[in-house]
Design brief:
Number of helices: 8
Shape: globular
Helix content: 25-40%
Bound molecules: fructose -6-phosphate
Structural class: alpha/beta
Distance between the termini: 14 Å
């Protein structure tokens, strides 16, 4: 694992450069994308660079990590809606080349078709991840099997609590989500994980310095050969 530490602005700018370099070399790259508060600065920077003509997503494809079960793309808390508003509306990606798992799959067999779609697109070149306080990546909560493909998950109460800030009340937070699995994520050629703020410091320490184990899903990224963590000083504060 490579760890890059700086101010949030510095690491966002370095992460954005990865997209500039990748898309210059491979304009039709396949990007794995995330939602949540962590990628917002990066998405704003990508939009700025795109507006300035410094990168283009015109031939790129994207696959998002996850979606809430039961929310369609018109719901303002769906991850499709989030992606449209925070990134896709501001860059030149073709909407038909953007993929977010369907929040209406009925079982894992149907959810797994997302893995087949990713494979048919050539596999993910660069996967972006945030990290939950319990080490989840995507919605792969602790103890998710290493071999998991895209599947339906029951969200832990801590994840629902963490996400209730976006809903009117905890009761409105969906109980299930569909997420790429750990295996899906590990198949990506390169992975970027971003984390900001003191609240992520402990889990970043376990991710980087703990043994890779399924009780801390993000720690499994140690087993991937091309992972870079972009951390602000606060998130990196207990790494030593
Ligand atoms: C989002 C996702 C989640 C978030 C994580 C951190 O698509 O898959 O794993 O990355 O919950 O969320 P924030 O960035 O809001 O702290």
């Amino acid at each position: 694992m490579k760890v890059i530490v700086g101010t949030k602005e510095e690491v966002v700018s370095q992460a954005a450069q990865r997209y500039v370099d990748l898309l210059a070399k491979k304009p039709d790259a396949v990007l794995g994308l995330a939602t949540g508060s962590t990628p917002l600065g990066l998405y704003a920077e990508l939009a700025r660079l795109c507006a300035e003509g410094k990168l283009s997503f015109a031939e790129a494809k994207s696959f998002n990590l996850d979606e809430y079960i039961g929310l369609d793309g018109t719901h303002d808390q769906s991850y499709r809606y989030f992606m449209d508003r925070n990134l896709f509306d501001h860059i030149d990606i073709k909407r038909e080349n953007t993929h977010v798992p369907s929040g209406f799959v009925k079982d894992d067999a149907e959810a797994e078709r997302y893995d087949a779609e990713i494979a048919a697109a050539g596999g993910i070149d660069l996967q972006l991840l945030g990290i939950g306080h319990n080490g989840h990546i995507g919605f792969n909560e602790p103890l998710t099997p290493f071999t998991s493909l895209t599947h339906i998950v029951k969200l832990t109460e801590s994840t629902r609590e963490a996400n209730k800030r976006f809903f009117k009340s905890i009761d409105e937070v969906p109980t299930h989500a569909v997420t790429m699995g750990i295996h899906t994520v590990m198949q990506s050629r390169s992975i970027i994980l971003m984390a900001f703020g003191e609240g992520k410091a402990d889990i970043i320490r376990k991710t980087v310095m703990g043994r890779p184990e399924i009780s801390v899903p993000a720690s499994l990224l140690q087993l991937h050969e091309d992972v870079t963590l972009y951390l602000d000083h606060e998130a990196a504060s207990v790494l030593n």
